[in-house]
Amino acid sequence: MTLLDREVDERHDAGNDDRADRDIAIRHLAMGASGETGAQEQDGERPTHAAHVTAGVAAELARSPDVHTGITRHTSVVSKAFTKEDEGPPPAPVKRRGVPVPVDVPNYITADGARALRAELATADADRAQEISDHLATAVVMEPPADRARVGFGAKVTVEGEDGTRTCYRIVGAIEAAPREGAIYWQSPIALALHDATVGDSIALPRAEVEVVEIEY
Questions:
Q1: Contact 181, 167 (CB under 8 A)
Q2: Pairing mode, strands 108-110 and 140-142
Q3: 122 located within any domain
Q4: 204 — phi, psi (to 5°)?
Q5: Domain boundary among 28, 47, 63
Q6: Residue 109 neighbours by CB under 8 Å, 6+ apart
Q7: How many CB atoms lie within 10 A of CB 151?
Q8: Residue range of the domain that includes 28
Q9: What is the pLDDT of residues 11-59, one digit of tens each?
């Protein structure tokens, strides 16, 4: 009995017939191809086409699906998207508002705004604290003007449109501006249009014609 026959019988006894035949065939095909190629190289000959074919068949068998399970003999590669460990919650959003410090015009700020920023500075995170500090370093704190009958820096102005809708604006410094809340930068188009107006004046704002109905400080 040959070595090949003995190995086949042993695998049959173990109840793994098809896979045993397959594994043995692959091993002996590979050994035969390697032996033939090695012998030819020692004799100074180039490996024959048959040796290449045999080795190719062995490699193809090793890659082919299992007879019973259909599982391909390749190492699975799990996507990094499913193996990446949880890195914890995302960092908290930076509170910096991204307002540049005015350089071409004075960095005006209202007295109320200056007090609010100094109070915020005590509890602000590093980024926001740096922003506040940069603005306060060049800030020019403005008190209400002597003539409070005219619109100036720090004024709260109420205007009325042609349809009767009223809107309030407060003219403030760059770091204080919050347009959605009615606080507008003193260099903005609306603030410039309202500057020096008095109650009763008609003002052409960028999107509408309005009348000044109230001015407060």
A1: no
A2: parallel
A3: no
A4: -90, 100
A5: 63
A6: 117, 135, 139, 140, 141, 142, 172, 173, 175, 176
A7: 25
A8: 3-63
A9: 555 555 555 555 555 555 555 544 544 444 455 555 544 444 444 544 5
Q: Give me 81's structure tokens.
A: 């998207």
**In this structure, what token pair is assigned to residue 88?**
């914890």
DSSP 95: -
* pLDDT 10s digits, 186-211: 999 999 999 999 999 999 999 899 99
Q: What is the pLDDT of residue 39?
A: 47
CATH code: domain of residue 197: 3.10.50.30
Q: Is residue 142 part of a domain?
A: no
Question: Is there a domain that residue 33 lies in?
Answer: yes
Rg, C-alpha atoms of the chain: 42
Which of 58, 161, 181 lies closest to 169 in space, CA to CA? 181
**Total count of domains within the chain:** 2
Is 19 domain-assigned? Answer: yes
**Unique residue bearing structure tokens 């500075």:** 121
What is residue 16's predicted lDDT score, i.e. its pLDDT? 52
Domain boundary among the residues 63, 83, 103 is at: 63
